[in-house]
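Hey,

The postdoc asked me to send both predictions to you directly instead of through the lab channel. I've kept everything plain text so nothing gets mangled by the mail client. Protein one:
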Amino acid sequence: MTEKRWGLTIPLPGTVAEQRELIAELPGLGYTDVWSSEANAADAFTPLALASVWAPELRLGTAIVPVYTRGPATLAMSAATLAQAAPGRFALGIGTSSNVIVEKWNGIAFDEPYKRARDTLRFLHAALRGEKVTAKYDTFEIDGFVPAVVADPAPPVLLAALRPSMLRLAGREGDGAIVNWLGADDVPTVAKHVREGAASKGVSDPEVVARIFVLPGLDADTARGIGRRMIAAYMNVPVYRAFHEWLGRGEAFGPMWAAWEAGDRKGALAAIPDEVVDQLIVHGPAEKCREHIERYVDAGVTTPVIALTVDGDPAPMVRALAPR
């Protein structure tokens, strides 16, 4: 990873179709990547398929596709199709997602997430190379899947990870890790486990993609108010709570968790300290935001991906946040 990368999450606020001109403008602004997500809005693949035509210079990535909500073969087919349409420009990011998305929204049991991620990585590496797969994994069994679409080159597969075992798995059996909801000062703690995993197969520079939440152009009080709502929505999900306990924020988040569990939503928001919001949410003037994002890169992130939160037309802030 020698090229300096600068990514943006798509689709941006608004409808996908109306973003054609802005996405086409991204390479000229200095953006190298666009990365999608998949929760309760757009699916992960359609925005990237459009971007592959609108801005053929951009690298495309999913961050992430849940490993539970598509069958393994369907996931492989979707990835191979997009990788064939954009040769050498697509990276597949997968992850376990959360019990909320998997169980509550999709009615699928959120069982053995580590094993499911590991098994999916192993299956995908074979299927995306075009191999016939007949295998019994711990969490699913494949009987005679023959991929009829095979991209050349096969896309790299990255794994979303939060804590040490999954981070090492991302480096050991994946092509790198995708992380989010961490501060710039947390990056060395996280990245070292990815590097440890990658070192076991002789790789010294695994990719580390970080989705970074950015609220530009707002005064501090407004940005922190929005940021508190975003943080509370995630930090009360078990996997993110465990992540921040591991990072050492148990004491800082303790009052928020206690108020939330007591049903006091207003009190929970108020209990999130300003300094924690400032660590996890990039806000302020565009130049200050760029400097904050660069801190993630200096700390070990190879691909920063801006997740932009704005009211109204996102184009002015997309342009203002372009790399200098």
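Protein two:
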Amino acid sequence: MAKQLEGPILPFLRLDAGTALPKFRQVQDQLRTAILQGHLRAGTRLPASRILCEELGLSRQTLVRVLENLKAEGYLEARQGAGTYVSAALPRRPAKARVAPTEDDAPPRLSRIGAASRGVSAAIGRVEPRPFLPNQPALDRFPFAVWRKCWNAGARSGSAGMGYGDVAGEFVLRQRIAEYLALHRRDPCDPEQIVITPGGHAAFTLAALALADAGDGVWFEDPGPVTTSNLFRTLGLDLCLADVDADGMDVAGAMARHPDARLAFVMPSRHHPLGVTLSLPRRLALLEWARANDAWIIEDDYDSEFRYDGAPLPSIRSIDSHGRVIYAGSFSKALYPGIRIGFLVPPPQLVGTFRNLSGLIHRSVPVETQLALAEFIGGGHFASHLRRMRGLYAERRSAFIDAGQAALAGLAEIECSESGLNALVWLRNGRKDRTVQQDVLDAGLQCYPLSDYTIATARPDALILGYAGVPAERMRPYLDRLAETLSTS
């Protein structure tokens, strides 16, 4: 009986009682058109004739006539004991796309945000994973077997994991994150303060929507992450650019130029892409500015887990005594980017707003993934994985520095901070990073040009390279290839 229910649902088959065209012709023409347009592809099995008769209100004799005619025309074929299929001899082609708009077509009417989004790029997920891809963890060392067990353990909750979840995230995961923050980041919080989001980028979006209106200013480090600056622009915020030096964001300069900004977006643990950390005096000055101006700080705890010269630095939130910091974190670098789980820790007075807004925008993050992650953290596997990755990345960082200094001598200067997954390669002899990037891609490697992150402040040309995803024994061959590419650029 189950076999008879196989085959696609065909919603396009409709009988029109108001036309003089016979029923068999209506069904026959609609099936033929669906095959020609690629909606029914070659090799597709049709539903059993009994099912089609019931759904269309046709007699079996009428349907048999339709199928026999289409078989005779070459559109269908019968397979002994298996049913009726779209002929395998037909070309396999996708359904026809709608005709692309021409220059004469009027532009579609969009919202302000929709119109703004057309001018920026969101193609971050389309990057090919080649050697030296920035921000790429060592996916080859991910504990797949342990993760699978954690997933299965979470799935034992049965149908509970298949429904809508709490808009703030599953409480067990929020508990585990709160325990992790208290132990590893020296930043205790109530699990009820935590709001789970589908990734870190979604956390920034939620904070910006909750706390700022179009036209409000946001302090933003220059250079800074492209997707985040594009996000704020799209939301209508005014980017108030802040310089970055060896001590991180120039807070005094930002205060002098943009004292009335509504938000400050900052990466204090490890700035991306320059790799510097925000000094304690500047952290305190930032907190005082936010308190005095009724402003908010979005703290992106970027790459905080991977520091190679000591324990991770405390967060700004851990020294915030006035409730002005919204802490944002994710598991994209610590585990893998596709997990799409981030979180926010807003001050207590904002928790209700963030919960409600998250429910309106995201509804909930997939519950099964949350339960698996909670099991992974609670079982001690997350801490063990971080410990292993710190050792591995420290080894790969050393291999990158040693091999890079030898291979790139005279071509570029390597700068590799004591944290994170990336390094900067400052180009010499007038080489332009955007031009060199294409040559690097042609050589089968990957990099990002620093110029793409720069908004207004001119800086020397450099390439951003990720070393964490490259085995130590492969560093020298890949860097030799990079050197060969630079020598001919």
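Summary for protein two, as requested: Residues 142-379 form a domain with the Aspartate Aminotransferase; domain 2 fold (CATH 3.40.640.10).

Thanks,
C.
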